[in-house]
Design a protein that fits this description.
The chain is 47% helix and 16% strand. The chain is of the alpha/beta class. β5 and β6 form a beta hairpin. Bound molecules: adenosine-5'-diphosphate (2 copies) and zinc ion. One adenosine-5'-diphosphate binds next to α1, β6 and α9.
Length: 219
């Protein structure tokens, strides 16, 4: 890691973190580090990590801190993070944020911005239950707000679109409660450290991205 563009995207499930992270990847050439994607990959491959994680994920609960902290430390060591990265879905607890802080402090490359994508709760259930994801390239769609053009296939790669197990409505409600209890306190945490910036996450994806870029470029 060096003097890179080291960003965190904060926000509730469905805020648009993944959508915006992919646009940052494209524009700034830094990788998206999504703990959710890493965990889903482990579940798909039936690894020991995946088997442990799946039970938590399908209940709408968080995977234990030690587990995700370990994953992120390993990921950030890889060469592609040397010019920066966008953390999507991590940290999600104060303990994770503290661990990240200590880890980055040791290598002298602190986080330079935390962007909270604000979306009020009323929008989130609909966003999550309508979300569809490409099985091949991971691109995200919404059945109503950003449908794929061709009959249930990905516009980028033609891959099959699927609904995540935890995007079923029963689990969605639990995930939103988990967010309120364990992740929302990070807004205050990063406000106090002077790193927090906020964007309105309701409206056109491009407008929101433009707001994010203004923050990134003016940092
Ligand atoms: P979303 O993008 O909808 O917020 P994610 O893909 O980030 O969802 O996460 C899916 C699930 O993976 C979470 O509900 C949780 O079980 C697990 N997970 C992802 N990131 C973390 C994390 N930083 N700490 C603990 N659990 C996590
Ligand atoms: P997160 O990673 O924060 O859970 P996603 O980026 O996966 O959120 O977005 C959740 C769902 O909402 C997806 O189906 C996505 O297509 C849709 N979405 C993202 N941004 C917007 C927006 N600005 N307006 C409407 N729908 C959106
Ligand atoms: Zn695809």
């Amino acid at each position: 890691m060096g003097l890179g563009l080291d960003l965190i995207l904060l926000g509730p499930p469905g805020a648009g973190k993944g959508t915006q992270a992919k646009k940052l990847v494209e524009k700034y050439g830094i990788p998206q580090v999504s703990t959710g994607d890493i965990l889903r990959d482990a579940v798909k491959n039936n690894t020991a990590l995946g088997i442990e994680a799946k039970a938590h994920m399908n209940r709408g609960a968080l995977v234990p801190d030690e587990v995700v902290i370990g994953i992120v430390k390993e990921r950030l060591k890889r060469g592609d993070c040397s010019k920066g990265y966008v953390l999507d879905g991590f940290p999600r607890t104060i303990a994770q944020a503290d661990a990240l802080f200590s880890y980055l402090n040791e290598c002298g490359c602190p986080i330079n911005g935390v962007i909270d994508i604000r979306v009020s709760k009323g929008y989130l259930v609909k966003r999550l239950s309508g979300r569809r994801v490409c099985r091949s390239c991971g691109f995200g769609y919404h059945i109503e707000f950003s449908p794929s053009k061709g009959n249930g296939r990905c516009d980028n790669c033609g891959g099959e679109l699927f609904q995540r197990d935890d995007d079923r409505e029963e689990v969605v409600t639990k995930r939103l409660d988990t967010y309120e209890a364990q992740t929302a306190p990070l807004i205050d945490y990063y406000e106090k450290s002077g790193l927090l910036k906020t964007v309105n996450g309701v409206g056109d994806v491009e407008v929101i991205f433009n707001d994010i870029c203004k923050i990134v470029d003016g940092r």
